[in-house]
Design brief:
By secondary structure, this protein is of the alpha+beta class. 28% of the residues lie in helices and 22% in strands. The protein folds into five domains: 97 residues, Phosphorylase Kinase, domain 1; 180 residues, Transferase(Phosphotransferase) domain 1 (Transferase(Phosphotransferase), domain 1, Orthogonal Bundle), CATH 1.10.510; 63 residues, Trypsin Inhibitor V, Chain A; 65 residues, 2-Layer Sandwich (Trypsin Inhibitor V, Chain A), CATH 3.30.10.20; 66 residues, Trypsin Inhibitor V, Chain A. Helix 3 runs antiparallel to helix 8, helix 5 packs antiparallel against helix 7 and helix 6 packs across helix 13.
Length: 626
Amino acid sequence: MSENKRMIADRYEVGALIGRGGMADVYEGVDTRLGRKIAIKVLKADLVADPSFEVKFRQEAQNSARMTHPTIVRIYDTGEEESVDGNGNPRRTPYIVMEYVQGSVLRDLLHARRLSTAEAIGFTEGILTALEFSHRAGIIHRDIKSANIMVTETGAVKVMDFGIARAMSDSSATQSHTSGIVGTAQYFSPEQARGENVDARTDLYSTGVLLYEMLAGRPPFIGETAVSVAYQHVSELVTPPSAHNSDISPELDEVVLRAMSKDRNDRYQSAEQFREHLLSAAIAPASGEPAAPVAFTEFLDGVPEEALETVAMPEVQNDAFEDLFGSLASEIVVEETIQKPEKKAPRKKSIKNDTNPFSSLGVEFEAEIVDTSVRPQVTERSRRMVGLSWGIGSGLVVLVIGLIVYMLAFAKFDLVLPANNNVAVTDVTGQTYDQASAAFKKLGFTVSEVQAPSDTVAKDTVISTDPAAGQTALKGSNVVITISSGPAQVAVPTLLGLTETQAKDALTAAGLALGTITEGTSPTVSLGLVLQSNPQVGTYAASGSTVDLIISNGKVDVPDVTSMNINQAKNQLSGASGGLKVLISTQEAGCANNPPLGSTVLSQSIPAGTTKQGATITLFVACNAN
């Protein structure tokens, strides 16, 4: 079978390559059984042998398959294709069959043109809707970025690559795996950059970064390396997007800055909350001015025509009014002698702007006004009957009220009100688990404990509670107490060969700090580069702790090799200094031309101590062998 007719699982016809990533390639395809267009993601051949990549690849399929939502790219099927390579060896090809999305990657749109504010808000709303759905399903994306967002030809958003962030190895400058950190540096949350555990709020930070990029036309942080960008996410203040785009309102600035808070507790706590604040900011009028109709028109750009059509609202039946007055009307007899008015056609009248609350939006109404100038005539008897009925009703009301007053004043009975079982949650931050547990049990709660790392709260003390302090909860319900396990343990990143600035950035990105710096000699590491760290690379240290560095001074150690024989001296210089060039010579007269060299070193041209890397040292020996 030709290459352009390659089949997978005897069902899926593989077409042209439409996408390439660090972990997988994506092809256009056709499901020949159902006759529909599909996309096929195939794990790269060189990664099939690595079980961890294969597991993560399957995990992506399982995660996405659990979620069926219009804002998430659907997964139809997954499996492994068994085949034979050109050498006759068996070959496995894991694949995922996905929904084919006709449209553009958001990253390409950002590179092609400046997005409007309405587009940025609309795309972000779609992303947050997808995240709300995925978070409820217990799945954190971990790699929200423009390359993982599809925009259809109708402007709808499709989020893809759920779960792949844990396994993808992107060789671009925006991808970092330092110390186990996985994600895209441009969209890193501070906790990702520090190598800490992530949660749903991590996705919200990355979405805030993406919203910033769409509004401002540039990322919030720019650096020469992934490490420097990650460092800025951890420590640098965010410049409001309005500094790069004067059309951005203060309300949108506030939404973006809150979403990008360094402390995840200061961010939006759910995708739904983020979306609500974003949409509120989108329609917020300028200070002191009413909302302009053009703002609504702008936000309708790209909406399908059918979504803008006027529809008739269903007629509201006044059943409630009929139920209320039906019994009374049945008791009032109105004589047939009521005079009937002359029939008049209903009058249609335009509601003027001074009475039309929607006039500021450019909306005019035509309403049917009932002409009440002609009223039916009722007889005196009917008036008397109506008055009598209302009089009887009023009397009964007065009688009932009097009975209630008498019973409250004189009757002997106990009025039992339902007990209020809602109890305020006490603030136990900083207490031990035993102290907090005792306090909550005294209030009538049950308690459970979870542990989490913290750089600010002392080990074995309370970080937070759920429900939070100050909120109310039903007596007898459970309060979850989060206890600090101390600073998170992070791996010391690879620092060998980095400059001091690069090493500092790498340590910051890993959640560590630069400690003391001392100079050291090395035959191989160039001047100004790291040659050793304490703790050493590959070991673990508490998050926030310091790492000391030894940086090369560009010199080598020179030992004293006098009185050694030539072979010993050469070995000593080679082993200790490595970077020196060794020459043998004599200082005696008459031995200048090809002297018979002795075996003992009498002196050396560079005394014991240090010298620059690559220097030449001459060992002087006797003219005649000893």
